[in-house]
Amino acid sequence: MFLSVFEMFKVGIGPSSSHTIGPMVAASRFLDHLRALPFTVAGLRASLHGSLAFTGVGHATDRAVILGLAGFRADDYDAQRAEAALATIHTEKTVSPDGLPPLRFDPVNHLTFDYDRILPGHANGLILSATDAQGDVITTETYYSVGGGFVLTEAELEAGADTDDGPPVPYPFKTAAEMLQMCADTGKSIAELKRANELSRIGAAELDAGLTRIWTVMNDCIERGLTTAGTLPGGLNVRRRAKGIHEALLAERGMNLTAPHTINDWMSTYAMAVNEENAAGGQVVTAPTNGAAGVVPATIRYWLDHVPGAGASGVPDFLLTAAAIGGLVKHNASISGAECGCQAEVGSAAAMAAAGLCAVMGGTPEQVENAAEIALEHHLGMTCDPVKGLVQVPCIERNGLGAIKAVSAASLALRGDGSHLVPLDAAIETMRQTGEDMSVKYKETSLGGLAVNVPNC
Questions:
Q1: Could you read off the pLDDT of 144-163 as tens digits, one per residue?
Q2: Which of 164, 200, 384, 428 lies at a CB distance of 3.0 to 4.6 Å from 444, suitable for a disulfide?
Q3: C-alpha distances in Å from residue 279, one per residue of 35, 58, 236, 303, 448
Q4: Is 114 exposed, middle or buried, given 0-12, 13-18 or 19+ CB atoms closer than 10 A?
Q5: CATH code of the domain containing 400
Q6: 200-216: per-residue pLDDT in tens?
Q7: Which domain does 135 fall in, by range?
Q8: Are residue 323 and residue 407 in the same domain, yes or no?
């Protein structure tokens, strides 16, 4: 089982990796399918199912599908071009992706939210079809957005979600126990194992440049969030708070008036800055999802700005360690809120961040695994209940608390020798089982929890 660091950390757009980035990726894949056909298509149809239908409007899923069918991609998204394209598509009822003729597509009539039919493979399903000149469907494909921007066709899901067709990696591990044994056998850190696996697929220069880009996009997102005020879109009239809190924290510096726990406000503010940007549709990095995108960058920023001896040269090892943990969670459970609730998103992110921080602060592989386990264990059972289907309440603050838990987990692990009662593998399996048992009301459908107990307007 091999998941690249660049699969766990993808550059994309808000507000949701599963509901925005995934559907856009699915649309792009469908266009590639059409380009390979030996016959000409004339029109397109799309239907959203399960969580993509229930909370699709709040997550801009319809917008993502429309733009994806027009040829837009999440990793190089141009907001100005997208707005112009949307206006044209709604007026002309046609999309014109590269390599294909203009295709009839009326967003009002040809994109449907099917609230009654949940597809069998996953809670996040969409069906894309192409029609001939008479409007008859001539080819169709079912896609599942399985969290973190990962997309599988129906056939791929049935064949095995984690199938890896690439060359073998030198240090394959499917469990934390296997990972720790490899560290013990080789004397390598988790980051070193992960780096060696990455280098079996790409060159060192490409890997280093990619890791630099990930942190640059993360940090730029924090900075935008810390300097932007206003109200978030979507109708809840949620005010951006990161800028105001950050300015207050800066003003208090050096005044010897703040309590020690104020450091929590710094961590929360960094995370909230990211998730306010995400809620506004800005550029973020899945970590491992958009809904949990603030936890890892906030923890890195905390380490760089507030921990003596920290330096940017350690960020790649942080990211590689975090990606190794995220890969274990995805392979053995889920990173999808629609599948396992927010424990799979912020819980996974906190485990990744705790592991990364523990590693760069000198933790042994056993301490790193312990840090990840502590962070995940104390998110077990967390529901995904976004008010009005928007990635705002409780998601923005939840990322701040996730970062605080990540730092606490790393600190606790570093106080020990790495031995502990509950292994990370057990926590991951418990999360999977809990997600299976969790009512669909609490898995990103906005049918329960805060989503029904807080006024939506």
A1: 999 999 999 999 999 885 55
A2: 384
A3: 34, 10, 11, 25, 21
A4: middle
A5: 1.10.4100
A6: 999 999 999 999 999 99
A7: 16-159
A8: yes
